[in-house]
Amino acid sequence: MSTGPAPTSLRKRQALYLGLLAVQTVCATILVFELMPFFWRLVDDFGKVQEVSGKGEALACFCVVIFQACYWWRINNLAVPFATKSQPISHLIVFVGRLSFLFAGTLASLIFFRHMPALAPSNLTLSSALKLLLLFAVLFSWFCFSLELERLGKHQAQA
């Protein structure tokens, strides 16, 4: 009769889970620090079109690809390997997940309100379409990050 996975196997799964979550967290942090100056320029000078540098766009693409690879591999191959009954920790993890998406939603709202005329089909160029696609990819990554933190927090609450 099996009593579950061997402790080393559990430790390996926990280390892998935390490692993948850490990579996602680093990618999300890089996106925040890369997009924060852009965000403040939007807020400070709402009437002026703001651009993200080519370096910033490339970094955002890189972070989204790495982030999504980690997220989908973990979702498909690795269950949450933690079980604790700490309600305060569970609530804190879920709170951080929702808070992270709040920043993304605020940034997206500012961009859409400011750049809505440029998104009209008659004004849409290949470059602006690719930038819009990158924005959606960044937002989707933040959504996935918040979902993963909620999954982790809820798993702890149910344990």
Task: Explain how this protein is built.
With 159 residues, this protein is mainly α. It contains four helices and no strands. The radius of gyration is 19 Å and the shape is elongated. The model has no long low-confidence stretch (mean pLDDT 80).
Q: Which structural traits does this protein have?
A:
4 helices, elongated, single chain, 159 residues, 78% helix, mainly alpha
DSSP helical segment count: 4
The secondary structure category is mainly alpha
Task: Output the radius of gyration.
Answer: 19 Å
The main pleated sheet reads as: none
Relative helix content: over 70%
Mean pLDDT across residues: 80
Q: How much of the polypeptide forms β-strand, as a percent range?
A: under 5%
Task: Please write the string of helix (H) and strand (E) elements.
Answer: HHHH
Low-confidence parts lasting 5 or more residues at pLDDT below 50? none
Shape: elongated
Total number of beta strands = 0
How far do the termini sit from each other? 23 Å
Characterize this entry briefly.
The chain has helices spanning 7-44, 54-77, 87-115, 126-158. It is mainly α and 159 residues long.
Write the layout of secondary structure elements.
Layout: H1 7-44, H2 54-77, H3 87-115, H4 126-158
